[in-house]
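User: I'm preparing a small set of examples for a lab meeting where we compare how different chains pack in three dimensions. I only have the primary sequence for this one, and I'd like the structure in token form so I can line it up with the others. Please keep the answer compact; I'll paste it straight into my notes.
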Amino acid sequence: MKERAAVEGRLLDDDARLTLNARYGHFTAMQVRDRRVRGLGLHLERLEAANRELFGAELDRAAVLASIRAVLGGDLRDASVRVYVTEADRPRVMATAAPPKEAPAGPLGVTPVVYQRYLAHVKQASGFQQAHIGRQAARAGFGEALLTTADGLISEGAITNLGAFDGDRLIWPDAPMLHGITMRLLERMDVPQERRPLRAADLPHLGQVFLCNSWGLMPVGRVDDVALRQDEKAMTRLREHYDGVAWDPLD
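Assistant: Understood. Below is the structure token output for the 251-residue chain.
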């Protein structure tokens, strides 16, 4: 018998059924503006590396770009786009488009949560745990959760990378994490950079603490009830570098 699936009483076609069953895989998330993407090559490299690790197969770059163009259609120029490579009967490339997202102005409050992702360096298609952690943090009045080890070492945010910048040096956590695309673009800044073990108690003693993801850059204003210093000049310098990154055309 052929496998079937239904949603709210409606049978799904084959493609929708395969999408519903695709729980194993990886993805990348990007912001599209005027049909351009920052760091498109880095997104493709991320997908290629994860594809080899999870599926033992090379990525079809043409299928990725074709899926992005298809989901944008002829009318969308700005969107939040995700590209998934998931396995139903075989690895398949899928893309989704949603309204564009901008980074919240902040400063954001964050709260540490003890949780470490399996294969942290892979952006995994199934993200129930992170989604739940993020929702719980939001209900408690925080803009993001910081994922930590049992002894308090910070690795990353639930959907972000965390860094600190004092105007002269960029500091990143030294822990297993997803090496985010925006983080990689910031690593191109011509300033000294280092990775070091970081705990929540260290953050008030650093420069401007910030979060970054495909939405952009967000200053952090507090960890739980502890206020962090705000350095507008440091944030401006980070944003100037990020805003100066070239946008790669999709067409």
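A couple of notes for your slides: The longest helix spans residues 40-55. Residues 11-98 form a domain with the D-amino Acid Aminotransferase; Chain A, domain 1 fold (CATH 3.30.470.10).

User: Perfect, thanks.
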